[in-house]
Amino acid sequence: MAGKVQSDIRKKLLDAFAEADGGFLSGQALANLIGCSRTAVWKHIEGLREEGFVVQAVKRKGYRIAETPTALTGDDIRLGLKTRFIGQSIFYRETVDSTQKVALLLSQDKAPEGTLVVADEQTAGRGRMDRKWHSPKGTGIWMSLLLRPNIPPQKAPQLTLLAAVAVATAIEEAAGITPEIKWPNDLLVEGKKITGILTELQAESDRIHSVIIGIGMNVNQKIGDFPEELKDIATSVAMETGSEASRSKIIREFCAQFEKLYLMYLEKGFYPIKLLWESYAKGIGGRMRARTYNGVIEGRALGITDDGVLEIEGDGGKVHLIYSADIDFPLS
């Protein structure tokens, strides 16, 4: 309980500084806003300084945050986060084996919907089909989002497409580059992978217990940071823009975009998300190859159905519904 109280005080302190927008707040004003003593305020400010925040203290003016940490921290993500529930509970660790594994444990421990697990490094990050995901320290965004949607389990894959739109929009808003979405779970810039998404479901036949959406985003890697086998197929925000980006800013933007889309989805269904997804989609209308568990299908990509299933028209005119596959395009 004490830990939760401390966390609530820190969150309220960060909210107050965010509202001040770089202005000064007196120790007493902070104590009144947060509902604690001035001594508690001082202790939490010292905690922020230990994390790398530059907090100025000026007599008769109070405190203000002058600089945020260069390293990724949970408190830096919280500073300025304007959502109702997505990301309001953040579990941050410097190093984990996999944020997906941590999120699964938190879901079993009744963590609230919208809990975000973030790590500066993953030692055993993974993508679809248990492929290894390169997640080095201090470079990218490695995070998992816990959801508890009241939807039929068969509709859970739609949340992967929703997350892809939220990530694309967040990168566009925060970094000024526009990714393309490769069905179902990759984001590309100039044909190179910048983000992967992994959605895992815990459910019974008729009820979802939780959905965990894992997101790996290359942000500040340079070409030399990628292993040899990835150098020709991967890119990062910094490589595309020529300058480093704030990982915390991108995460906050993602949380805001995801919450907006998720609430729209729960109210209006998948169709509005489908339209947004198609605006970022790559390869629709062209020829592609889908390598499924049951064989290889080639043809023209027609788009996705109202349920989010990929449609490919084969050379004989038959339309194939693709629920899961590795996609190759363009094909001549």
TrEMBL record:
Its EC number is 6.3.4.15. InterPro entries: aa-tRNA-synth_II/BPL/LPL (IPR045864), ArsR-like_HTH (IPR011991), Bifunct_BirA (IPR030855), Biotin_CoA_COase_ligase (IPR004408), BPL_C (IPR003142), BPL_LPL_catalytic (IPR004143), HTH_11 (IPR013196), WH-like_DNA-bd_sf (IPR036388). The keyword Cytoplasm does not apply. It is an enzyme of class 6 (ligase). One of its GO terms (molecular function) is biotin--[biotin carboxyl-carrier protein] ligase activity. Gene3D superfamilies: 2.30.30.100, Bira Bifunctional Protein, Domain 2 (3.30.930.10), Winged helix-like DNA-binding domain superfamily/Winged helix DNA-binding domain (1.10.10.10). Biotin binds at residues 122, 126-128, 193. Pfam families: BPL_C (PF02237), BPL_LplA_LipB (PF03099), HTH_11 (PF08279). GO terms for biological process: protein lipoylation; regulation of DNA-templated transcription. Keywords: ATP-binding, Biotin, DNA-binding, Ligase, Nucleotide-binding, Repressor, Transcription, Transcription regulation. One of its GO terms (cellular component) is cytoplasm. Residues 27-46 bind DNA. It catalyses: biotin + L-lysyl-[protein] + ATP = N(6)-biotinyl-L-lysyl-[protein] + AMP + diphosphate + H(+). Residues 79-266 form the BPL/LPL catalytic domain. Acts both as a biotin--[acetyl-CoA-carboxylase] ligase and a repressor. Belongs to the biotin--protein ligase family. This is Bifunctional ligase/repressor BirA. It comes from Neobacillus piezotolerans.
